[in-house]
């Protein structure tokens, strides 16, 4: 018998969804930072076994959208509700509820299996954990409850095994050697965006989009040229920094990650461009793969 299905990870921003997906996959597929709204897309990560295929979806954290980009991000979350065979609802220690009531009701009334994962228990103590466990079991009685630490791996294998059990009988949906649905350029954009989230403050990371214009793979090296887009001229100066030092740091760190990811030497060229108010522009959003409307 062969099993296969969609296992979609949803929850509030910053609870550790991407960390869990990467732990399941054993690769750094999704970028991770301590800032909310790190993930902007629905990213598939596929785990293949001889007799199963688990198609995980990492999704953006649930928020009330304030501009078009965020509305598109929530459309990815909606789609993840629609095709799930197993829902993984992740919360973190100290958190009380999902910010969007409609989404929360979908979880509570779900007809498919729901696993409620209480993450970051490494930051907790026994007493707090028990109190939280009770809170969530009362709030989402239809879910199977697991305390985990995605970062330290606690209970991750048990949850993985349970998900395999819950997968429906089905042939594989993707070739058995496929790891993700996203092209190489997507991971280049993300690696660069991760460094921007890490090194710039306030609104800057949220005003940035990265677009990889060239990706040439030669025998021993990959030559990449990417553009970092910002919404305003002042942001451009901040990204570049004094004598280009800030941009240089982004380039060096992203290149190192990409060399690890692709297992090959990388030459990365970065430049910065203003793309006025791209976050609110339907056409631009479509161009960057956010909006399918
Ligand atoms: N202590 C602790 N930190 C964790 C754990 N899992 C994730 N984190 C940290 O929590 C932060 C957010 O992790 P992400 O995996 O990016 O969270 P996310 O839910 O994907 O966030 P968004 O994409 O912004 O919605 C990072 O700093 C992680 O290192 C955990 O089990 N324990
Ligand atoms: Mg994420």
Automatic annotation (TrEMBL):
Pfam families, per the entry: KH_2 (PF07650), MMR_HSR1 (PF01926)
InterPro entries in the record: G_ERA_dom, GTP-bd, GTPase_Era-like, KH_dom-like_a/b, KH_dom_type_2, KH_sf_prok-type, P-loop_NTPase, Small_GTP-bd
Tagged with keyword Cytoplasm: yes
Domain KH type-2 residues, every copy: 200-276
Region entry G3, spans: 58-61
Segment forming the signal sequence: none
Compartment(s) of residence: Cytoplasm; Cell membrane
Membrane topology: Peripheral membrane protein
SUPFAM superfamilies with a match to the protein in the record: P-loop containing nucleoside triphosphate hydrolases (SSF52540), Prokaryotic type KH domain (KH-domain type II) (SSF54814)
Location of region: G4: 119-122
Region described as G2: spans on this chain: 37-41
Record field: transmembrane: none
Keywords: Cell membrane, Cytoplasm, GTP-binding, Membrane, Nucleotide-binding, Ribosome biogenesis, RNA-binding, rRNA-binding
Residues noted as binding GTP in the record, renumbered to the chain: 11-18, 58-62, 119-122
Stretch list, region G1: 11-18
Region (G5): 148-150
Protein's UniProt keywords contain Membrane: yes
Its job: An essential GTPase that binds both GDP and GTP, with rapid nucleotide exchange. Plays a role in 16S rRNA processing and 30S ribosomal subunit biogenesis and possibly also in cell cycle regulation and energy metabolism.
Family the entry assigns: Belongs to the TRAFAC class TrmE-Era-EngA-EngB-Septin-like GTPase superfamily. Era GTPase family.
Quaternary structure and partners: Monomer.
Record protein name field: GTPase Era
Species this chain originates from: Winogradskyella litorisediminis
């Amino acid at each position: 018998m062969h099993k296969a299905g969609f296992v979609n990870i949803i929850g509030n921003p910053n609870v550790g969804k991407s960390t869990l997906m990467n732990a399941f996959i054993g690769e750094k597929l999704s970028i991770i930072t301590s800032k909310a709204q790190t993930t902007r897309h629905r990213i598939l990560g596929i785990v293949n076994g001889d007799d199963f295929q688990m198609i995980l979806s990492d999704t953006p954290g649930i928020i009330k959208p304030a501009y078009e980009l965020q509305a598109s991000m929530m459309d990815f979350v909606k789609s993840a509700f629609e095709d799930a065979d197993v829902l993984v609802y992740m919360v973190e220690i100290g958190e009380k509820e999902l910010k969007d009531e409609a989404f929360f009701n979908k979880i509570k009334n779900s007809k498919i299996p729901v696993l409620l994962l209480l993450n970051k228990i490494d930051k907790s103590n026994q007493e707090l954990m028990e109190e939280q466990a009770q809170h969530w079991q009362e709030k989402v009685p239809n879910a199977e409850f697991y305390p985990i630490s995605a970062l330290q791996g606690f209970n991750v294998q048990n949850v993985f095994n349970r998900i395999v059990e819950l997968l429906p009988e089905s042939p594989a949906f993707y070739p058995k050697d496929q790891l993700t649905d996203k092209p190489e350029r997507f991971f280049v954009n993300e690696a660069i965006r991760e460094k921007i989230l890490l090194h710039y403050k306030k609104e800057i990371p949220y005003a940035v989009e990265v677009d990889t214009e060239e990706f040439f793979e030669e025998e021993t090296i990959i030559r990449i040229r990417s553009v970092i887009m910002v919404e305003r001229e002042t942001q451009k100066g901040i990204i570049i920094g004094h004598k280009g030092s800030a941009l240089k740091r982004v380039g060096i760190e992203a290149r190192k990650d990409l060399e690890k990811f692709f297992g090959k030497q990388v030459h990365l060229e970065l430049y910065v461009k203003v793309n006025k108010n791209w976050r609110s522009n339907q056409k631009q959003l479509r161009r960057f793969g956010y909006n399918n409307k």
